[in-house]
Design a protein that fits this description.
By secondary structure, this protein is of the alpha/beta class. The protein folds into 2 domains: 169 residues, Glycogen Phosphorylase B (Rossmann fold, 3-Layer(aba) Sandwich); 158 residues, Glycogen Phosphorylase B (Rossmann fold). It has 14 helices and 12 strands. The strands form 2 sheets. The protein has a 6-stranded parallel β-sheet, with helices on both faces. Helix 7 links the parallel strand 7 and strand 8. The longest helix is centred in the N-terminal third of the chain and has 15 residues. The N and C termini lie close together (10 Å). The relative contact order is 0.14.
């Protein structure tokens, strides 16, 4: 196999974990000498219009025969099974996390996405999940046979250990302001810290869901935390590296993660972590480097943060454990190699 087509909906440059994964895989595969044709599908997924589905059908039918095709799960799970079957070629799906598990969906949307993705995945020759947790979900809830499942967890880049700020303690949260990230729950948890001296930078796009951003800003104001909690919006990679370097503790209130690339980046910087027992997070972060709270439980999350702020020695031990664990994390070259191997094994 000399190359493949990678079909991805919308703007791959957007600052999301899924798109970051796709960008890195494309770059690494090309670095390994493989030709990758990035096919841009319409941006309306996972709720495409009839016109966008028709356009997707035309684009996918235009791929030269004999070329392996990998389709990002944001589109794959929302493409009708008859459309996929009609392509009459082996297909691979890359699933970051099941579409129906996104927070903020109504029951009708959730049921429709569950049925659509289950039917779509039945048409895939291989399904690549980005975490063991997601692979288990796909096997248990979506009926994907184990012999068609592969796991390619995100790679990590070598990075210097964070220096931290120390006093006041700097907390860092990385993730777009969307309902699934539950930044409002994090704000409520931080409000339980009382008169402690700390700051928290929430780094991530604030233009994805305007209503959610407004709710989080209102929550910050209502809790009187304007001087403590800062929404930075999306920032450059260089600025993000500076945020990690200045952090003393990484925090997350996410309600579900298919993997959680921000978590492994925190480990790679030697940061202790307070997060939730949601989705793939317990698989992603070792217990020696983290305290995990119940999802959607501000009191539990706040107590965990408070504990580590109160016990700097424990925080340092967890930081050391994070740094040690990071040395065992895979590289992007290893991630790309797994994906290339899965595509190579597909029938032609």
């Amino acid at each position: 196999m000399t190359g493949f087509t990678f079909a991805i909906p919308g703007d791959i440059g957007l600052p999301t974990g899924g798109y970051a994964y796709d960008r890195r895989v494309i770059a690494q595969c090309r670095r390994a000498g493989r030709e990758v044709h990035h096919l841009v599908l319409p941006a309306g997924f996972p709720f495409p219009s009839p016109g966008e589905l028709a356009e997707s059908d035309i684009l996918l039918r235009g791929i030269p025969p004999g070329l392996p095709v990998l389709i990002d799960g944001l589109a794959f799970g929302a493409l009708p099974a008859p459309l996929l079957r009609g392509l009459r070629r082996p297909l691979a799906a890359l699933v970051h996390h099941p579409l129906a598990l996104e927070t903020g969906l109504n029951e009708g949307q959730r049921a429709a996405l569950l049925a659509s993705e289950r039917a779509a995945l039945a048409e895939a020759s291989v399904v690549i999940a980005t975490s063991p947790s997601t692979a288990r979900l796909l096997a248990q809830d979506y009926g994907v046979p184990g012999d068609r499942l592969k796991v390619a967890v995100p790679g990590t880049d070598p990075a210097p250990r964070a220096h931290g700020t120390g006093q006041p303690a700097r907390l860092l949260c990385v993730g777009a302001v969307i309902p699934r990230k539950a930044h409002g729950v994090l704000v409520d948890a931080l409000a339980t810290l009382g008169s402690r001296d700390w700051t928290c930078h929430i780094v991530g796009a604030t233009d994805r869901e305007a209503e959610e951003t407004a709710r989080v800003r209102q929550r910050i104001a209502a809790r009187g935390l304007q001087q403590h909690v800062h929404l930075t919006g999306a920032i450059s990679p260089e600025a993000l590296a500076q945020e990690f370097d200045a952090a003393d503790l990484f925090v997350s209130a996410s309600l579900f993660e298919g993997f959680g690339m921000g978590l492994t980046e925190a480990l790679g910087r030697g940061l202790p972590i307070v997060a939730t027992r949601a989705g793939a997070i317990p698989d992603t972060v070792p217990f020696t480097a983290s305290i995990l709270a119940s999802p959607n439980d501000a009191e539990d999350l706040g107590a965990a943060i408070d504990l580590l702020l109160d016990e700097p020695d424990r925080r340092r031990l967890m930081a050391d454990a994070a740094w040690r664990h990071a040395q065992s994390l895979p590289s992007w070259a290893q991630t790309a190699s797994i994906i290339l191997g899965a595509l190579r094994e597909m029938p032609r």
